[in-house]
């Protein structure tokens, strides 16, 4: 007796497994979908699925051909309508189905259906989860010349929850900036420095993760806020050409020019603040120019060297108001050190010029300096061009002297290196010159010396001969002496 590939019981078991998988997946969707008929709406009923897909029974006829009968049809009608003759791909054979084969097919169904169930349930769950955004985002100005606080309240749905780990994603910037600053925090308040000459904008959202989010991350909508100081005074009344230099890591000198529309009696004042100072402080050492304050010198800023310093230059003038100007300084990037000290030059026998110097004394750390060395070679021209030879951290430099150069000048200057600051100002130059005679000059000197020596010898000989002749002539002219 010839058997079919897979018994009808196996086919029914396979159909039952697929139907159960679909129903389970639909149940996951229904748990997160309040609309009726969610299971069939997403996946369809078992009857509908069988009507769309169907299942096949393959049989081997006595003549070696196989026929396929679609399920859900009358077998007698199938003989007339759906009966297909299919050429076998292998010689006809008798097939038997063992228990191991059924077990393998069951394992295969589990391996295929289980990931599908997991994806279906998790996808449906994650799709439906949501979290409320933070409440009442505010930007608060405590009067610290640009240091603002952004604060908010937790979402309503999570105020009483202590089991869900909540993180807040905060973005903020000055209006006109291209990039946002991004902060992830679990707190409800964050502070930073802003340029108060421009509006400030911020936004925050809730990030929910962990068991409350079924192992995924759920993001809320954004909550927005903005801030801008009230307008005060005419724009042209504010100061211009504001510039600051931190000399020798010891004192900060800031200068400015009065605004174009500032009244003649305008008086400007500088206030500053940095973290740890407490309240803003006013400048105690102003720079005066023709009866007006045009600058300020600040001392004792060591503790603020690697902090932001907020500065406001405000003013008063009767009866008009002056518009304030706000600045954020990082004085480590404004350092101008003194010039290098004890610059010395020497030449070796191989005509190499050795240059050495010392780092300047004072508050500038020696390890924070880099140096630029420039050379000038000339034949006595004072306006000869300088060429950069090196930018280095060491305090020594060696270069070869060209034969065509009679006078070599070396100058060195320093500034803060990249290990201590992002930028800085160059110091003034320290300069020394070194004279080196030419090779042809030496030869000419030797030739002149030889010629002079030769003529000297000749003159001495001529002078000696001349004296000898005069002595002999004088001896002949003397009269003989008698008794």
From TrEMBL:
Its main location: membrane. PROSITE patterns: FN3. This is Interleukin-13 receptor subunit alpha-2 isoform B. The keyword Signal applies. The keyword Oxidoreductase does not apply. Keywords: Glycoprotein, Membrane, Receptor, Signal, Transmembrane, Transmembrane helix. It is found in: Membrane. It comes from Alligator mississippiensis (American alligator). Residues 339-439 form the Fibronectin type-III domain. One of its GO terms (molecular function) is cytokine receptor activity. The chain crosses the membrane at residues 444-465. Residues 32-87 are annotated as: Disordered. The gene is IL13RA2. Residues 40-51 have a biased composition (Basic and acidic residues).
